[in-house]
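Bug #2210: token dump truncated for Alpha 1,4-glycosyltransferase domain-containing protein?
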Amino acid sequence: DEDQDQSSQGNETIHSWRVHHPEWEIKIWRDEDILILQQQQQHNNASSCSAKLNSLYQHAIDQKQYGMASDIARLQILYAHGGLYVDIDYLCVRSVEDLHKEDNIDFYCGASNTGCIEFNNGLIGSIPSHFFVKRVMERIADWFEEYFAEGDESDSGNSFMAENTLFENSKEIEKTPAMSLLSSFLDSDSVQHLSILQKKNKPEKPIRFTPMEVIEHTGPGVLTRELLNLFREDGDSKDDA
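Reproduced locally. Full output below:
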């Protein structure tokens, strides 16, 4: 059946990596391993965005969006341990040992054959605590926070983001002439109550992301954008020098 076919394919690809890297330790990361890692990272404050990423990971698992969960987990694993992450369906045809020798390369990733510039997160090599891995994690966490900050988290089951969307006086009031005039006649408690009512009347954000949102914000899309931004920043700094 389909599960047996996938298992057979996984065994074949794992074997191909062992053949070309006989001295490497190969680890299959399972859900329980990732949860332990996330708890350790959050406890040790491994990165400022650990708690947000852990929430997004659990949200993806709850919604059965396992591709998104995997996007997050691979970055957390690489940031903690370094090494090489590959999707389980990637067949190894030659050794990449030279890329991991000391003082050689501290980060690399795959490129997609999509007919456009796209870096692929299905194969990423990195040293532990690499600044770029952290940068991508922070971008994902920022997007997640901004996405739900525009909706009412308590009604959509996303209360873990509620602390980031506190309604403070008139800052949350929609900036229209009528609302600004009305708020100018109200005390602060009434303005806050009006803000909450206004928020609750807005359409709820969907709690399940579309495939394109996953690609764009946690997958190859965010990886490609941040790499291109990094290249541009590096070029600008050299021009200034």
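Output looks complete on our side. The first helix runs from residue 2 to 20. Marking as cannot-reproduce; reopen if the truncation happens again.
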